[in-house]
Fold these 2 entries.
Entry 1:
Amino acid sequence: MERNNILAPSILSADFNRLGDDIRAVTDAGAEYLHIDVMDGMFVPSVSFGMPVIASIRKETSCFFDVHLMMEQPERYIQAFADCGADGITVHAEASTHLHRTLQAIHACGVRAGVALNPATPLSALDYVLDDVDMVLIMTVNPGFGGQKYIPQMTEKIRSLRSIAQERGLPLDIEVDGGINASTIRTVLEAGANICVAGSAVFSNDRAENVKRFLDVMKEYTAW
Ligand code: DX5
Ligand code: ZN
């Protein structure tokens, strides 16, 4: 089936004082996903926001809510995030001891299941769960903050994962997150990503203009 490359603006870099306006600006401009970063102050140093914020913005838009849980033992909150409006839930392989069970729990809630890998975590962490996930999120920075620089070694990791997925015949979504801008986006699309998160590069200056520029580049690449 023909599919498009997808832009997922990360609201972590939005202006929270006018969050609804920021979300409308990027979805009206054509972004299909909203990337929603939940941080617990344990798995990553920072704390962001949680269920009440997600439930509140859910009333304003029908776009896909791509919830990235940067938290320890995310299995404690799967049902809660599904209930407040997540369409996809991504947990970190490093944070969930019984990862396979957690992925089953996500699917049992009727939402798409993703696994995220920190930059230092090898792809082999996915060997026995790849058939049970809809998406793999390759962190292209160390998670915790927006506005960091893309780690160049991640390009090879994306490329390897795409070739593993192709060998296994899996229509896997590969999402990249961190340091994606006008130049790194070409690198990751070429390497095998089909969903690109962008925070600071979208939510600065003219949001709609930024989204349009990203989408124009993404259309140049056939989706994997
Ligand atoms: C980082 C978060 C990212 C962040 C990306 O830990 O997972 O989603 O918002 O921000 P940029 O695009 O600015 O690197
Ligand atoms: Zn994220």
Entry 2:
Amino acid sequence: MYLGVDYYPEHWEIDMIDEDIKGMKNMGVNIVRIGEFAWHLMEKKEGEFDFSFFDMVIEKLKSQDIQVMFGTPTATFPAWLVKKHPSILSKDENLQSRVFGGRRQYCYNSEVYKEYSSKIVTKLIHHYRDEKAIISWQIDNEFGHEGSDMCFCENCQEKFQMFLSEKYKDIEEINKVYGTIFWGQTYNDFSEIPTPLKTITTHNPSLQLDWARFKSHSLNNFSKEQIKLVRGLKGGHQTITTNVAGGFFNKWFDHEENVKDLDFVSYDNYPVWGGLKEPLPRAEIAMNLDFIRGLQDKNFWIVEQLMGAQGHTVIGYLPRPNQAKMWSYQAFAHGCTNMLYFRWRGMTRGAEQFCFGILDHDNRCGRKYNEVKSFIDEISDNEEVFDSEIKSEIAVLYDYDNIWSWKFQPQSIGFDFNKELMRLYTPFYNLNTNIDVIPAARDFTKYKILLIPALQIIDRELGSRLESFADQGGVIVFTFRAGIKDKSNNINFKEIIPCSVRTMAGIEISEIESLQPGQEVDIVGQGPFKGRIGKCEVWRDLILATDAKTLYKYNDKIYGNKACITVNKDGDGEVYYIGGGINIDIIQEIAEDIVV
Ligand code: GLA
Ligand code: ZN
């Protein structure tokens, strides 16, 4: 088991290293991560590579038997590079070029950037491929985080048009699929197809979804090329990972695709960040960990575990004594096997003066130091437990095409995919059950219960897999808008909503209503839930229960005869349908019915 810290020796006077390493050793550290932002230190001028600083650092760490994870430094390019090649910079949706300063301002489709990145990475790996102390390479840093997953530059436009011509082959096909006849948008040539920059009203939904798919392809392509380069050069004893940032469902790239070629996934676990007055709810911290475990369906590392308050311009909640230690235990309970804390010492200069580490700016070993030390002491004795596989009978299904479809057209101002997923995850989390969070395309036959929040894009293949899952005794819980769209982000035609879900759910949805922030509709329990009163927000599907049993209906003058929550016996299984944003304690009772 590796337990350690993120360490930036380049931030400090050179004579502090020995004292730092001694302090780490005393805390129980056996690994540090270095280098992920140090490109200039290793290539001060173009083509002049110098690894002597890190040679010295690694020798000192080795003398204390501390291993190393080394980050490739492509998240922060040197000023000399962007001065010579400003074309590497990404552009926002106003076509405003990002500028030097900050980080990750490069375009994933820049061939120039790929060329320079390959050079520094090749030199770095060549230099350290036989270094026994370096056991792992971290590729870049938090791909796509802080808005860096989106670029609208000319490079991206040209590659997007190529991406579309390869996908649709002829222009008539894309016109047909997109329905460009609408608003006279028919293309004569792929070179006429726009990137969805800011426009008056909104873009074509099929174009938007293809744009999101292209952005995902661009980022993942950049990452895969670097992983392939490192894999071809590294030592046999060295593994490859990357550190995934939080906010997965707000990102424009498919995370499962991103980590496919890695030896293991690493995660940056920040239960609280920036100006939040309190941490994320414990269920959401848990869901994030389950999502990370689900990416490769196996245990993972945490390479940035929060210990101090964090923020760039605004800080927030101070983790209480032993709260960060509790979050560390929670992470191990959800599949973490190795952990590094962010970071040894908070920096006094630069953009992260307020990202506090284990040691504060007074450089004393205080409460946080002792908290990490005690955790390392305790957790180290239980390695075999934490290497064991986590087995779940429940899975939450998500799909990035579906998430992006909602991001472009939320249909209700109050819609937030993460919130709708947590509406289903939390009640089952509260029952202390293991839950996997996995892509809908994955084989889910091993599970007993599927929780499927707001999955509007369900194609025939997925529909039939879900059908047979229920038929063979599985329980499915759908929520609103299930199945209404196809893979081109278009509404299904001549199909009664919820389309491919209709038969298995035993319902028909005659009308729908988007509810806006502050708008709530009462729902009343029927049958086993008679007398219970609940609330419905964000959305309501007005359901006709054809074969299904009504569990809750709307308490509404006009739609009082429409169901809100139903359950249908389908084959040997059951299919629940929750037709709106229902308060969690109502879903909690349904969860208890299902699980116990
Ligand atoms: C992220 C980054 C780190 C650092 C921390 C600060 O996780 O990976 O480089 O910026 O946030 O909290
Ligand atoms: Zn670009």
